[in-house]
Design a protein that fits this description.
InterPro entries: EGF (IPR000742), EGF-like_Ca-bd_dom (IPR001881), EGF-type_Asp/Asn_hydroxyl_site (IPR000152), Notch-like_dom_sf (IPR035993), Notch/Slit_guidance (IPR051355), Notch_dom (IPR000800). Keywords: Activator, ANK repeat, Cell membrane, Developmental protein, Differentiation, Disulfide bond, EGF-like domain, Glycoprotein, Membrane, Notch signaling pathway, Nucleus, Repeat, Signal, Transcription, Transcription regulation, Transmembrane, Transmembrane helix. One of its GO terms (molecular function) is calcium ion binding. One of its GO terms (cellular component) is RNA polymerase II transcription regulator complex. The longest helix has 21 residues. This protein has 3 helices and 9 strands; from the N terminus they run βββββββββααα. It has 218 residues and is α+β, with helices and mostly antiparallel strands. It is 16% helix and 13% strand. Strands 5-6-9 form a 3-stranded antiparallel sheet, with no helix packed on it. Among the domains are: 38 residues, Laminin, CATH 2.10.25.10; 49 residues, Laminin. A hairpin with a 2-residue loop joins strand 5 and strand 6.
């Protein structure tokens, strides 16, 4: 029983009315509100920058805030991606199950796109297929180095990824942008001169420079 004074619901913005010992009523206001009827907004919730997208705009409300989200973003703080979401005020996701269902459906959609793009057949073909370079498609079998195309800066006239580490030196690919042709152009070291071989092994890293051992082979 709320009593006569609380029957008119005098407390605003979610305030709770209770009878006062001396007669009348008092309003218990939520955080950020003040005044006899919780009508005064005493805290700007936007000061904490709650909106989680750089293009979102925060609008202060009595005891609350709303985020105006750009297209494809939703959630109270614009924290969720939804390709079908129009620009507008973010909507709160009420239960965790709704969030899980959203991501589950999105993953199912992405996996179907992988099948439509024949990504299972392209996986591991040593060619970065951008349409398959995402989690749902197993990152194209690592052909794009887990999300990064290693050949993106390679401008050689041939497809260096097709001759990568094939044992043949392709000079067009022998540069940093084309990953040095998988070291195919690196010359194999000749064996150490047998005259010095045993001596160099015994005196390796002894703090003295022996000119007969001062070469890559030894």
């Amino acid at each position: 029983f709320s009593g006569y004074d609380c029957d008119s619901n005098p407390c605003l913005n979610g305030g709770k009315c209770s009878l006062s010992d001396g007669g009348g009523y008092v309003c218990d206001c939520p955080m950020g509100l003040a005044g006899t009827h919780c009508e005064i907004d005493s805290l700007d919730e936007c000061n904490s920058n709650p909106c989680k997208h750089p293009e979102a705009t925060c609008q202060d409300k009595p005891g609350d805030y709303v985020c105006f989200c750009p297209a494809t973003r939703t959630g109270k703080n614009c924290e969720m991606y939804d390709p079908n979401a129009p620009a507008g005020y973010g909507q709160s996701v009420r239960v965790r199950q709704d969030v899980n269902m959203f991501y589950q459906k999105d993953m199912e959609r992405q996996r179907q796109e992988c099948l439509d793009n024949k990504c299972p057949l392209k996986k591991g073909n040593n060619k970065c297929d951008e349409e398959c370079n995402k989690y749902a498609c197993d990152f194209d079998g690592n052909d794009c180095s887990l999300g990064i195309n290693p050949w993106i800066n390679c401008t050689a006239p041939i497809r260096c990824w097709e001759v990568f580490m094939d044992g043949v030196c392709n000079e067009d690919c022998n540069n940093a942008a084309c990953l040095f042709d998988g070291r195919d152009c690196q010359k194999d070291l000749q064996p150490c001169n047998p005259i010095y071989d045993g001596y160099c092994q015994e005196h390796y890293a002894n703090g003295h420079c022996d000119y007969g051992c001062d070469n890559a082979e030894c």
